[in-house]
Amino acid sequence: MIRSSIDLMLKTGAAALAKNFENRDPIAGQREILARLVVAAAVTRFGRDHGFAELAGEPFDRLYAEFRRRVPIRTYADFWRDYFSAWQSDANGSQRLLLEDVTWPGRIPFFCETSGTTAPTKYIPFSREMFAANKRAAIDLTACYLHRTPRSRLFQGKLLYMAGNTSLTDLGNGVQSGDMSGITLRHRPFYLRPFVAPGMAVSALPWEEKVVELAGLLLSDRSIRGISGVPPWIILLLQRVEEMGHRPIAELLPNLELIIHGGTSMKPYRREFDGLFPRRRPHFLEVLPSSEAFMAFQLPGEDRMRLVPHYGAFFEFIPIEDLDEGGTPAADAPTVPLEAVETGRRYAVILTTCAGLWRYHIGDTLRFTALSPHFIEFTGRDRFLDRFEEKVTQGEVEEAVARLNQLDGIEVREFMVGPDIGERRHLWVLAVGEMNERSGDVLGRHLDATLRSLNADYATFRSQGRIAGPRVVTVSGDVIYRWSKEVRGKLGGQSKIPHVDPTVEGEMVASLAAFADGFRPAGSPTASRDSAPRAG
Q1: 230: closest CA among 511, 493, 531?
Q2: How far apart are CA 536 and CA 526, in angstroms?
Q3: What positions belong to coiled-coil segments (predicted)?
Q4: Dist CA 276 CA 254 (whole Å)
Q5: CA 374 to CA 380: how far, in whole Å?
Q6: HEC string of 425-487?
Q7: Does the pLDDT of residue 491 top 80, yes or no?
Q8: Which has the closest alpha carbon to 290: 268, 273, 307, 304?
Q9: Measured between alpha carbons, how far is 43 from 179 in angstroms, rounded to an integer?
């Protein structure tokens, strides 16, 4: 009864919030956000270094021009060197990090730990203002969902949140660091706790144990109506539910109405979701959160995400052709604000945030497909397959696997691709289902043909013999996850298998391929021996 009353109250307020969201002017909002951020940070060390007090009250065109002139584009390494490292210390073997009035006014209470594949762990500042901004984004998304889905019973039940590691590290002086999803879950508002599962005891379990407990929870608690997580982990969870329940997922979870997914493209996994829900599908909504800011989400009835530039971050964009060969912009690279973006172009994202990141190169790229609203498609990380100057994007890689999964007898569950420097070709490691009926050479030919159709540079280089045909190694899904756990030390939650190897020389994909070789039965053929299509 209480849940029904709360549900009715939420739906009553959802219409007003949704209308407010739809009526916001993103361009005007971006102008206001930049002005507020500059004024707020004028008292900080960063603000004094860049003369922010002199910019207060300037009209946007003049403010933005001067802001770009005074503040260089920075990477994380730049921020760490110039501002963060001076405030790090060690005490009794424990790391301490205290940023107070450094790049944002007041003390930064949280740091989101993001793993570096070729660098140490990054500590991304996460202020109380950013926490509040993310909460507003979640409320707006929920309101729009309830308004556009009038029969929803989501808040008559619970949302299962597949968070990462929820244990937080004490950095001293009341400051904590950890996985962003763990920070969000541990410090969620008290009034949301009855609507979120699982409890903290389950959330803190090791990943393999957590999946089993979450599957059991889904089978035993029919009030769970939504799941939020990364696509491959959601699939893994639903498959475990089927294994434990011995029936199709649609029968086992008849009340499941919403799946919120993000962190990696849905394209390679769509076929598996279709197989899990052959008739009645829940609603699927894609989100693009990051440790730096909440950037985009999808509304019911729309097939793409909208950029949502309303939540404490000022956006700038750099065409990817202006990045260097390592995917990094120059400090003075030409940028455009939201009002000057064009459809069809692929941009690197530069953020200025209410957590004290200024013109920060976050490493994500996107493409605008419309400007009113600002519909986008996430096109992956700035790093792409370009070791041989072919510049194949992560979006093209994921599209190639998605098309592979459309063929009968093929089920790629997870994958990674990177350069094989010595052989001048791409090395693909595909985690395939048990029913895969195609050999590595057939898979390689399909991938090769798709990339030729998607990328003119790749097609030219292949026809000229400058790149050899791809090498394909097939493994089972459990092997690729075991490698991630044992070699990378990361599994589950918000940790994802990189689809494009982020290392310069292809060390990561080579490591995975070598690890996979150790699990082949004696005498079995290796897909890598004969899977390279000839050049031309």
Answers
A1: 493
A2: 24
A3: none
A4: 13
A5: 18
A6: EEEEEEEECCCCCCCHHHHHHHHHHHHHHHCHHHHHHHHCCCCCCCEEEEEEHHHHHHHHHHH
A7: no
A8: 307
A9: 29
* Dihedral pair phi/psi, residue 472, rounded to 5°: -120, 130
Nearest to 490 by CA among 227, 212, 232, 117: 117
Distance CA 168, CA 185 (A): 11
Residue that is written with structure tokens 């400007």 in the block: 371
Distances 484 to 122, 416, 491 between C-alpha atoms, Å = 19, 12, 6
Q: Which residues contact 399 (CB under 8 A, 6 or more apart)?
A: 267, 450, 454
At 60-82, the pLDDT tens digits run 999 999 999 999 999 999 999 99
- C-beta of residue 122 within 8 angstroms of C-beta of residue 113: yes
Residue count of the chain? 536
Q: Which residues pair with 419 in a beta bridge?
A: 426
**Structure tokens given for 81:** 């060197």
Structure tokens at 254: 């008849």
* pLDDT tens-place string over residues 111-161: 998 864 444 678 999 999 999 999 999 999 999 999 999 999 988 899 999
Please tell me the pTM assigned to this model: 0.82
Read off the pLDDT of residues 402-443 as tens digits, 9 standing for 90 and up.
999 888 888 888 899 999 988 989 999 998 877 666 778 889
